[in-house]
Recover the amino acids of this structure.
């Protein structure tokens, strides 16, 4: 059981990265982004392209760092992939969603169009890479470390936790200390008042997509490192992402973090009683329960 | 290709498009007339198909039972299968509606998505229910003794078209009735419709249930056409997304649009099969993905440049600057 | 000198117009109060001046410049600030942060201005790190006005500043409004509390059914028997 909880925290932290981005987009742009899971896939696959493609062409060495399963290539590919997906998310907004916003389309049309973009992203991935499972480093033995209390955890997974923690702290500082971060929080609180104060909400929206996309990419890459890559991975994250976002209250970053961890742990613990394929259903049931009992989430107002 | 082959091809095209048209009619009740954003159509597709499969095939016995596990098998005729599919889908929609209809529009969407995925998982993993991933086979086809097997599709096409037209007429009648007017009022402005004393929840529920029943019939028609079904068939792509594209293309809120959209988009889908011939060898295996990519882009273009579809009306936008 | 005027404004939220041919004039440094029954279109007028609504007819002029149809982000840069009646603060942010957001578009060092606003609302200074959502109604209203003042506006639009406040706080708020006016800011107030609004107004406008009914000096309207009967509760 302890192992399940530990792995649940690892998985949960990955879900949290996606949920934080989704929560920001939902809270600031008022938009249920059904393509958010596929932004995670996009990040994972862009990193794959760099690690197995570009970086090997330019001759970056392929060795790994000690017990970790990756080396310099991933270190370089990680931030680049985050930046690329940030740009992709921004472009999607410019090309598609913004046009719908200016026409006055409601949230349902935006959600529907994000459904469309999710399929577009997934099809592009399938066209380029096909439907096989991929790995950043195929065939690698990844032994687990033994920690006190009989907890087994892989070195990769410890690093995942640190990366997530680092990104969350970075985001926190950004939102609390920088002018743009505060403006984002203001827009999430009250978009009309932000407009009235002269805040350029279109710029805020671009930043939101950028950050949301970058965090989603990070989550996708970390999942790829921990488990594997496949074209449907993002879609499978969609329900856990929404569950975590709703649990943590839409627009609340820390809520999304807690929500992600909770869903991750719940999913893992459920495998003690249910088949692992039912993990999505577990997240779904939790989400329905929250929507019935406390739809505003943990941190929402009455 | 000889004429007989071309006609046979067109007939199977028309059957599939007609089945999808039934789905679009069902979705039109939920979305077009009531504004319910249901992205779990694949769930009703799946349940409708499995319902009719288990109603119209016998429960496996003897040695056969080793290979095929099925919860029940009633071996009843085709029409019972259709009705059973409709009723079961209606009941499921009723149960789903209780927790989810009070939620906002996008919450409803994610809930319907979750339900569809959950059902697919259940059918895929619970072997005792319907044979898990192997699915069920040997569904009967009505009137199949009448003609030679190679001409059977003509009969099935007639059946599909009749059912499609009957459903179309029923919905058109219902929409013009007082019930239908309230439905549209709910979609346009829920708050004032509620204030005039109508029970909004009840109307939404009725719309959800009737739409689901129609979708159940669609699923059943599909199952009897292909004669065998498995969970892998009911994907978000073929079971949900393409139906949305069809309805948006044809015109949501318009039943003619629903039918036309189904035929138009399915024609585009089938038409792009021929594009595969022009692809370089390396990409041929990826052809379905390329074709679906085009469908996805098509949806975006429709949403941006002509969200009302071919037949629909333009929604009014207020003078308030957002 | 007239700093702001509207002429023949016809505007509404949808096809149905709420305002018909409305005109008001604001002289610099003065307070103009707009009173009238509910639904008269008073708030709609403020929203139209600030650019949230676009008038289908008529013009709005600021210091001689035509600002009709400009969007809020441009209007606010021209020196008009607006305090909405409801949802006029950022509840999850602190008082300090709310004021900082008010100053968002300023590129200069606004610490002096921040000081001045805190001097005006001393209660806020003590609690500047508190989240505004937890404050009382009266304090929230002060934050709402403070936010609008951070840009040193020449014109301040206040939409029912006393709405929802206990009577003691109402006179506090109106005192503050007078103090703000004393620093040279011209103010348009829309108010349900017609008597108080007219007491501090240099000029008053009565709006009903979206049209101008009457306008005169504030004291004159107060003394007017008919106005008293119809709009001031006798």
């Amino acid at each position: 059981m302890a192992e399940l909880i530990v792995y649940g925290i690892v998985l949960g932290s990955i879900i949290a990265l996606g949920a934080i981005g989704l929560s920001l987009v939902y809270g600031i742009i008022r938009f249920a982004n059904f393509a958010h899971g596929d932004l995670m896939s996009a990040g994972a696959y862009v990193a794959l392209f760099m690690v197995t493609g570009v970086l090997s062409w330019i001759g970056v060495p392929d060795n790994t760092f000690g017990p970790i399963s990756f080396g310099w290539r991933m270190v370089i590919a990680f931030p680049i992939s985050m930046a690329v997906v940030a740009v992709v998310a921004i472009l999607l907004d410019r090309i598609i969603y913004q046009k719908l916003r200016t026409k006055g389309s409601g949230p349902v049309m935006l959600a529907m169009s994000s459904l469309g973009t999710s399929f577009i992203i997934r099809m592009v991935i399938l066209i380029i890479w096909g439907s096989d499972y991929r790995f950043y480093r195929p065939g690698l033995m990844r032994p687990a470390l033994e920690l006190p209390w009989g907890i087994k955890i892989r070195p990769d997974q410890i690093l995942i936790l640190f990366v997530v923690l680092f990104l969350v702290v970075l985001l926190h500082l950004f939102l609390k200390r920088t002018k743009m971060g505060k403006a984002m929080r203001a827009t999430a609180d009250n978009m009309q008042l932000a407009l009235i104060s002269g805040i350029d909400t279109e710029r805020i929206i671009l930043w939101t997509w950028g950050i949301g996309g970058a965090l989603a990419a990070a989550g996708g890459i970390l999942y790829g490192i921990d488990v594997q890559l496949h074209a449907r991975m993002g879609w499978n994250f969609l329900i856990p992402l929404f569950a975590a976002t709703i649990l943590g209250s839409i627009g609340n970053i820390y809520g999304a973090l807690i929500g992600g961890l909770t869903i991750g742990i719940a999913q893992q613990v459920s495998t003690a009683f249910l088949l692992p394929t039912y993990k999505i259903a577990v997240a779904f049931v939790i989400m329905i329960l929250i929507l019935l009992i406390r739809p505003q989430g943990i941190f929402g107002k009455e | 290709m000889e004429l007989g082959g071309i006609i046979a091809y067109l007939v199977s095209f028309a059957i599939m498009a007609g089945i999808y048209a039934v789905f679009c009619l069902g979705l039109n009740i939920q979305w077009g007339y009531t504004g319910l954003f249901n992205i779990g159509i694949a769930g009703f597709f799946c349940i409708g198909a499995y319902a009719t499969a288990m109603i119209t095939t016998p429960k496996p016995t003897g040695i056969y039972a080793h290979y095929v596990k099925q919860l029940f098998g009633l071996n009843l005729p085709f029409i019972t299968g259709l009705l059973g599919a409709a009723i079961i889908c209606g009941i499921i929609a009723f149960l789903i509606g209780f927790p989810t209809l009070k939620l906002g529009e996008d919450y409803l969407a994610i809930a319907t998505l979750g339900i569809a995925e959950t059902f697919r998982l259940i059918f895929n993993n619970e072997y005792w229910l319907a044979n898990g991933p192997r699915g069920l086979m040997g569904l009967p086809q009505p009137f199949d003794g009448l003609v030679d097997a190679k001409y059977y599709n003509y009969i099935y096409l007639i059946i599909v078209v009749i059912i499609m037209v009957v459903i179309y007429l029923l919905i058109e009648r219902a929409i013009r009735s007082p019930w239908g007017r309230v439905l549209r009022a709910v979609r346009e402005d829920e708050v004032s419709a509620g204030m005039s004393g109508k029970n909004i929840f009840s109307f939404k529920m009725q719309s959800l249930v009737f739409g689901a029943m129609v979708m159940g019939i669609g699923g059943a028609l599909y199952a009897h056409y292909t004669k065998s079904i498995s969970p892998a068939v009911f994907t978000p792509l073929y079971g949900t997304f393409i139906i949305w594209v069809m309805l948006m293309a044809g015109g949501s809120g318009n039943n003619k649009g629903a039918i036309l959209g189904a035929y138009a988009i399915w024609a585009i889908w089938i038409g792009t099969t021929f594009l595969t011939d022009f692809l370089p060898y390396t990409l041929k295996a990826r052809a379905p993905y390329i074709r679906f990519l085009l469908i996805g882009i098509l949806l975006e273009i429709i949403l941006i440049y002509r969200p009302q579809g071919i037949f629909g009306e333009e929604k009014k936008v207020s003078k308030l600057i957002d | 000198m007239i700093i702001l005027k509207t002429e023949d404004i016809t505007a509404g939220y949808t096809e149905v117009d709420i305002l018909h041919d409305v005109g008001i004039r604001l002289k610099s440094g003065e307070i103009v109060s707009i009173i009238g029954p509910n639904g008269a279109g008073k708030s709609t007028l403020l929203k139209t001046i600030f650019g949230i609504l676009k008038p289908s007819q008529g013009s709005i002029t600021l210091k001689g410049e035509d600002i009709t149809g400009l969007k809020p982000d441009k209007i606010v840069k021209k020196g008009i600030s607006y305090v909405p009646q409801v949802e006029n603060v950022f509840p999850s942010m602190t008082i300090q942060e709310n004021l900082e957001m008010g100053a968002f578009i300023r590129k200069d060092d606004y610490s002096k201005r921040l000081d001045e606003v805190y001097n005006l609302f001393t209660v806020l200074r003590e609690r500047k790190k508190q989240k505004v959502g937890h404050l009382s109604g009266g304090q929230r209203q002060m934050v709402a006005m403070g936010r609008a003042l951070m840009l040193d506006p020449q014109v301040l639009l206040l939409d029912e500043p006393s709405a929802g406040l206990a009577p003691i706080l109402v006179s506090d708020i109106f005192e503050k409004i007078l103090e703000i006016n004393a620093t040279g800011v011209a103010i348009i107030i829309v108010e349900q509390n017609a008597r108080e609004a007219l007491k501090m107004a240099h000029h008053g406008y009565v709006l009903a059914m979206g049209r101008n009914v009457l306008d005169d000096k504030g004291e004159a309207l107060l003394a007017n028997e008919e106005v008293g009967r119809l709009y001031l509760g006798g």
